[in-house]
Amino acid sequence: MKERELVVRGLEAGYGEMQVLWSVDIEVEKGSFTVILGPNGAGKTTLLKAIMGIVRPFSGKIVYRGEDVTYTPPHKKVEMGITLVPEGRRLFPELTVEENLILGAYTQGIRDIGDRLELVYNVFPRLKERRAQKAGTLSGGEQQMLAIGRALMSKPSLLMLDEPSQGLAPKLALEIVELLGRLREGEELTILMVEQNVAAALRLADFIYVLEQGRIVASGTPEEVASIEDVRKAYFGL
Ligand SMILES: Nc1ncnc2c1ncn2[C@@H]1O[C@H](COP(=O)(O)OP(=O)(O)OP(=O)(O)O)[C@@H](O)[C@H]1O
Ligand SMILES: [Mg+2]
Hints:
Layout lengths: L3 E12 L2 E12 L3 E5 L6 H9 L6 E6 L2 E2 L5 H7 L1 E4 L11 H7 L9 H11 L1 H5 L10 H13 L5 E5 L7 H17 L3 E6 L2 H7 L2 E6 L2 E6 L1 H5 L2 H8 L2
Helix pairs in contact: 3-6, 7-8
This protein binds adenosine-5'-triphosphate (ATP) and magnesium ion (MG).
């Protein structure tokens, strides 16, 4: 049995009185590229936020590398190696590319920052070229690279991404996702990504979960999931 980076069991969560997630079970293998598919409003962002500790679970369990982190606060989780690239990127537009990156490393010892910057600039040479440019003036694709780069600054073990290809042209979306694939090969990294734009994700995913109305309705390898007719029609456009 392969090692599990993350295990979610019977997770229920929501906002106030409103329940969004219903008994969600997920297992993410160490070093895998796992994708969560689902329509608007399914609860995908809520799930990532609950794993990150931004949304407090009603019940259920979140286990990271064998440790119960169900109620561990987000900053602690970042220190433990979990990070989230949120929907809509959340950059500091008035700060430069490099300043945004450095902010992503705030949990690390200052001596490490130079090395981490180097690593991120190796992955995204375009960010290096634009290191002194204000983040708000970057193109959409470059901003997404910066958001991912910033997440990498905290030396994550589990990198979660909330629709990284949102708002990008298909070609660029593919580029970003392929880059994530290479990143995973290079570092000891596990990726959990939420996507609606599936073509790119499918090429790289080791395992897929389909979330609808707050419930996991299907799961399996890309081939297995694609063979379920309803799923195929809804997500694969076939
Ligand atoms: N802060 C909040 N307060 C109250 N309800 C919320 C909040 N955030 C999200 N919701 C509700 O929770 C449900 C799930 O939202 P969520 O953002 O998790 O969906 P999603 O699958 O990420 O959708 P999308 O694909 O559009 O990003 C929606 O009905 C949404 O309106
Ligand atoms: Mg969302």
